[in-house]
Amino acid sequence: MVLLMALLQGFYGAFAYLDPVAFANVRGTALVSNEDIDWVQIYASRTLFISLTIGALLYFREFKVLMWAALLGTVMPLTDGYLAYQAEAPLGVVAKHIATVLYLVITSVVLSKAFANEKT
Prior knowledge:
By secondary structure, the protein is mainly α. It has one domain (2-119). 82% of the residues lie in helices and 0% in strands. The chain contains six helices and no strands. The chain has helices at residues 2-18, 20-27, 37-59, 63-72, 75-86, 91-119.
């Protein structure tokens, strides 16, 4: 589950760098002007950082930190979903953000159990 999160974040980061306009449309918040592309690229750099950090934490089996990262990371898709809703994005885009929140919560529960099992 965590590997999938890291890979998806890496994909989204690369996608945002390579095609900022298409990425913004997929995310549900179309750019008003090409002058806004730099904000998408800022998003991309932070997303790539998150991807690499999550990958490193997984590699070093830091399940407790990953558990908290998954749980606290729900703030991002909650915000993205709200912004997409306000931008009148299609329902499927908003639903994708809600599904991401659920995935992160489930991942956090699975990681908490993995951490508990590792302690014993």
